[in-house]
Design brief:
CATH topology: SH3 type barrels
Radius of gyration: 13 Å
CATH class: Mainly Beta
Largest sheet: 3 strands, antiparallel
Protein name: SH3b domain-containing protein
Number of domains: 1
Strand order of the largest sheet: 4-1-8
Number of helices: 0
CATH architecture: Roll
Structural class: mainly beta
Amino acid sequence: MALALPGTAEAGTQDYAAVFTYNGHAVNVRDEATTSSAKIGSIPAADSWPCFTSNGCYTKAGGSYTCWSGGPSGNRWVKVAWGDFYGWVPQSCVRIGRA
């Protein structure tokens, strides 16, 4: 899915940092970098989503998580664009690259 970052040209014309869902699993977007914070959305399996910053993906330590039963776990989170705001996805549950 080609998406444009807020304030940029039309979708598909930009090269931007993004997260990609991993191993066929959707990933929840949280209000804060913890699983106990509000779920504000979900990135569908086999999809990508722009990071909040256009030059790279910002990560930070947050609450612990497990991606899925028997899957990866960790406590690093990635900041993603979500409408006019931003949210957080668990870093071990996505792959980071350029879209």
